[in-house]
Design a protein that fits this description.
about 270 residues, mainly alpha, f41 fragment of flagellin, N-terminal domain, 2 domains, two-stranded antiparallel sheet, about 75% helix
Length: about 270
């Protein structure tokens, strides 16, 4: 037995340091909720989780784009529902203006309402959604994933000749009223086609939205498998490491006390 070098104490101290480090890591995992608290815990897992998290963020952004595009289409259709009501009323006025019992003064009253409704439709054609024109007929490229995929959202043009012809008709004469009936019917037919286009846009974007939602859920689940701590398992590890630290501390105290017995040999 030697005095200058206490091998038992050194071994006990080394084991105490090891157990203390494990206890600290376990405590960090439990307090953070993550099983990767530093790159050294799982370098490969950290790299994979970073890529998955980035893809999830891009997917969320794409889903926001799709949802905004759906809102854009819903706004369009909301306006077009009112345009349909206006065109239907204009068609009705054009028929009423053909009544032979109506005077020129009566038809002038019908024309006043007809023109007002036509102005409303023309005004709707100028509306926008967050600064983007709703009815200029332009197709919009909507981002549908995090890799640059896109969907062409078909546009609606309320300034098309079919509409402007109907809104510009004059029903102060019977012949003008007859023409207005034909023009408003064409306008309603075009409107039906345009609303069908919007409906197809919404339907397709809804599919993309569901697809992105499922993808994002799976990406988050995969990231969770790598990074999230299993509290039940880690609590068990924490309890074990805590006991080992206490045991190592006690053994280090015993090892430090061993050289004291040498004093008996010197007495």
């Amino acid at each position: 037995m030697v005095i200058n070098t206490n091998i038992s104490a050194l071994n006990a101290a080394t084991q105490l340091d090891t157990n203390s480090a494990k206890l600290s890591n376990s405590l960090a995992r439990l307090s953070s909720g993550s099983q990767i608290t530093s790159p050294s815990d799982d370098p490969a897992g950290l790299a994979v989780s970073m890529k998955l998290s980035a893809q999830s963020a891009r997917t969320t952004a794409a889903q926001d784009n799709v949802n905004n595009a759906i809102s854009f289409n819903q706004t369009q259709d909301g306006y077009l529902q009112q345009v349909n009501t206006a065109l239907s009323r204009m068609s009705e006025l054009a028929v009423q203006a053909q009544d032979v019992t109506k005077t020129t003064t009566d038809r002038a009253l019908y024309q006043q309402e007809y023109s007002t409704l036509g102005s409303y439709i023309n005004n709707v054609a100028k509306q926008s959604f967050n600064g983007v024109s709703l009815f200029d007929g332009s197709a919009l490229s909507v981002t549908t994933d995090g890799q640059g995929g896109s969907f062409s959202n078909q546009g609606v043009k309320l300034t098309a000749t079919t509409y402007t012809t109907a809104t510009g008709d004059d029903i102060t004469s019977v012949s003008g009223a007859v023409k207005a009936v034909t023009d408003t019917e064409k306008g309603i037919q075009q409107l039906a086609s345009d609303r069908a286009t919007i409906g197809a846009n919404e339907e397709t974007l809804g599919y993309y939205n569901n697809q992105l939602s499922a993808l994002n859920n799976n990406l988050q689940a995969a990231t969770s498998q790598i990074t999230d701590v299993d509290v039940a398992t880690e609590s068990t590890n924490y309890a074990k490491e805590n006991i080992l630290v206490q045991s190592s501390t006690a053994m280090l105290a015993q090892a430090n006390a061993m050289p004291q017995s040498l004093l008996r040999l010197l007495s």
